[in-house]
What does this fold into?
Amino acid sequence: MMGMYDVPMWHSIRDGAMQLQHCAPCGATLYPPTPVCPHCLSGRLEWKRVSGGATVLSWAVFHKTYLEAYPAPYNVVAVRLDEGPVMVSNLEPPLPQEGWIGKRVKLIYATMPDGFVLPRFVIDDGPRA
Ligand SMILES: [Zn+2]
It folds into this structure.
């Protein structure tokens, strides 16, 4: 799960302030972490904190338990971060009854039963910053 390029990201998540790589030459925000920018192939990448704002692109509910710390049923959402990258995560309750796609969500940090801190999302009903 944790590759060498991911280490700063997981440390920032554990600290409650997720950072992703930002490409200095082209301005792209990169996820997952990478040695070079896939857009312009630059290696001049800086870690920057993300805003935490995102929009739901798609979602699914899984009815099978794969890991004891993550009992079914649970949802999986694909969100587009305001910085651009698409991230696969989970939406925390309260869950919308319908119409998940296009919902504004915000990043939170959930400590799982196994002690691992994961970036997750909650519906953001507040005014858009
Ligand atoms: Zn770039």
Notes: Residues 23, 25-26, 28, 37, 39-40, 42 surround zinc ion (CB under 6 Å). The longest strand covers residues 53-62. The chain has two domains: 1-49, 51-129. The beta strands are 19-23, 29-30, 45-49, 53-62, 74-81, 86-89, 104-111, 117-123.
